Amino acid sequence: MELVNGDRGVSSSRIVCLGEAMVELTPRQGRWDVHYGGDTLNVALHLTRLGFDVAYLTALGSDPFAGPMRQAWGREGMDVSLVLTEPGRTTGLYSIATDENGERTFAYWRGESAARRLFHAEGVERALEAAREADLLFFSLISLAILPDEGREAVLALAREVCDRGGKVAFDGNYRPRLWPDAATARLWRDRAAAAATFGLPSLEDEMRLDASESAETIRKHWLTLGCREVVVKAGADGIVLPDGTLAPPEARLHALDTSGAGDAFDAGYLGARLRGLTPERAAAHGQRLAAWTVMRHGAIPERDHAAPYAAMAAESTQGARPA
């Protein structure tokens, strides 16, 4: 699949990520560190750091966290013009605890989250009109889970409009059972979203919980049957099942410090490389590299440091891109 954006060039790709951003609380030496996270937000920030033009479509509350969150994302270089406000609601919040293997446990306070009322927020029609022009729209099953049915329909309608205008759609099947009344409802919306997607990014763990799927290959074939054009299955420690069904193992086995955000980092690395014309094999290597950097640091979207791979990955993508 050729994904270079024609005569506009790879660097001009406009990406819109849609979902819920939350306040992140992490225990640290008897105190709580305050940060932010959320699956689609993490992807948006990673892609911003990789040099893409990225906007985030969400709604925040009118609470004291919202303003600093917008400002922090703006400092990263992300476009916050599609971040709406829903007065009377609060920004969602979650806490993370990690065990000795870096595996995380979450607690959530999101029942009154402003993002649940995204499609009722002032300015949403203007934001949707801008989002329709995206070269890539990214959302997840969590993005759908927090919305009422009419909001879910609006997201899928947006995905179809992006495709109709020549753009691409990426969908991650992040499954959180607590957000759904039952697995059957989640499967229904998962299937509908996968059918509208160019890129499918399921994980073996989530699909096994949702569908009792027996293997990554079963998952890959199911998503392809639904109509998704390119499916990459995240198989945990075993690596990545590529669109052709082959397994790409990780370069190294890591003793993770914090696994929160690993799948999101992979998504960003993979999608960024594919948008710049790299093969799925090379794109998967980029995704694994970014995920490896992420899990060796605290938080879902760690602060950049001297070892951050963004600049090198962007340079490699540009050098390795296929000609338009």
Structure description:
The protein has one domain: Ribokinase (UDP-N-acetylmuramoyl-L-alanine:D-glutamate ligase, 3-Layer(aba) Sandwich), CATH 3.40.1190.20. 38% of the residues lie in helices and 19% in strands. The protein has helices spanning 39-49, 66-76, 124-131, 141-145, 149-164, 183-195, 204-211, 216-226, 262-275, 280-295, 310-320; strands spanning 14-18, 22-28, 31-37, 53-60, 83-85, 93-98, 104-109, 136-140, 168-172, 199-200, 230-231, 233-234, 240-241, 247-248. Strands 5-4-1-8-9-10-11 form a seven-stranded parallel β-sheet, sandwiched between helices. A four-stranded mixed β-sheet has the order 3-2-6-7. It has a three-stranded antiparallel β-sheet with strand order 12-13-14. A hairpin with a 2-residue loop joins strand 2 (22-28) and strand 3 (31-37). 49% of the residues are buried. Mean pLDDT is 91; it is low at 1-10.
List keywords for this structure.
alpha/beta, single chain, disordered N terminus, four-stranded mixed beta sheet, UDP-N-acetylmuramoyl-L-alanine:D-glutamate ligase
Write a compact overview of the structure shown.
The chain is an alpha/beta fold and 324 residues long. The protein has helices at residues 39-49, 66-76, 124-131, 141-145, 149-164, 183-195, 204-211, 216-226, 262-275, 280-295, 310-320; strands at residues 14-18, 22-28, 31-37, 53-60, 83-85, 93-98, 104-109, 136-140, 168-172, 199-200, 230-231, 233-234, 240-241, 247-248. Helix 1 (39-49) crosses helix 9 (262-275), helix 6 packs across helix 8 and helix 9 (262-275) packs antiparallel against helix 10 (280-295).
